[in-house]
Structure formats: structure tokens, C-alpha cells
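*** Protein under study ***
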Amino acid sequence: MSRLTGLSLFSSAGIAELNLSKCGINIKVANELIPIRAKTHEYWHKNCKMIFGDITKSDIKKQIIDSSKKAKVDFILATPPCQGVSLIGKNKTNDERNFLIFHAFEIIDELNPKVVIIENVDRFLNMKFPYDNGLYNIEYIVKKRYGDRYSINVNVYNAMYYGVPQSRKRTIIVMTNNDYYFEEPVKQKLITVEEAIGSIWTR
């Protein structure tokens, strides 16, 4: 299958993208608000164009869209900040960061990529957003907005079942056009921290 050219929104330091190249995805454009995170991303992803700035500003959004079109982006990874819905954070439903996903939607609409992945904490699915003169959860909004163009999978996955020695639940939304399909990951045997990194301490 051909490789995909990617855009990373809310990219932070780019840790989530380190292994994407092994999956046939080359991240060529990224956007991050915090300077130190953007600089770290540039260090790890030297062939990626980092657009530093606020995605809610029209000039930054235009830069993201224009650069992505030039790079022929056909994959988008959107990981908006989760502090507004996190149990550890303030958990305020009126936190402006909770609504950043709608700016990602605007970019998706402009680029019409083949594959989109949206990631957030598990509580993200319980939030209600103003949409179509009502209040709806993100699953309803995504399916309403993109259901005629994409196959859409919405689920909560726990990293502990996929080779990570930590219970870490995440909402994952996968949207694929007719060229691609999403295959549910197979759960793996649970591993302990000792099994994962114990050899480091016994050398």
C-alpha cells in the first residue's frame, strides 16, 4: 500500500509520531502552540515543516492549510489538548481548549485527506458540544459531518492491552475513505513494568 503524507495538529514534541514512518506515514507538516514543544518537534522531525502558532488564528490556519496542500497531505493526526476534560486537570466544560477540535474540522474540510485519526482522553466521548442548534457528543458530530465521506470507527482503547505496562485509556476516532480500511487491533498479553524495562536495571 502506498505511503501517506501527514499533518500533525496539536503536535506537542512529536513523540506520538516517532514510529509512524514504520506504518507508512511520513509527517511533513505540524502545528504546535508552545515554543519549547515546537522546538523539540523540530529536533525529532527534521524533515517536517513546523508551523508555530495558535491554530485559532486565521493566518496560522492558512499557513497550515497552504503548507499541507503543497506537501500533498492525505493523512491528519489531531490530538487536541485534553486538560479541559481530564480528571487531573480542571475538568471545566467551558474550557476553550475543549473546542479546538472544531478548528481541526475546518482543516479536514479544506484538505479532504484519505485518513484522519483523532485522539483524546476517554472522557472526551462524554462531552457535549454545541452543534446544529443542539448539544451532541463528538461521535454524533463526526458521523453527522463526515459519515457520507468516510468509514468511521469510534472507540476507547486501553494501552495496557497493546504492549504498554500502564493502564491508559484513550478515545481513538479513525476515519478512512474508500482507499483504506481500519482493522481493530488485537489485544495482547498484559505485561508488567519489570517485563518491559527490567533488563535495563539488571545489566
About this structure: The domain at 4-201 is CATH 3.40.50.150 (Rossmann fold). DSSP finds five helices and nine strands in the chain. The mean pLDDT is 91.
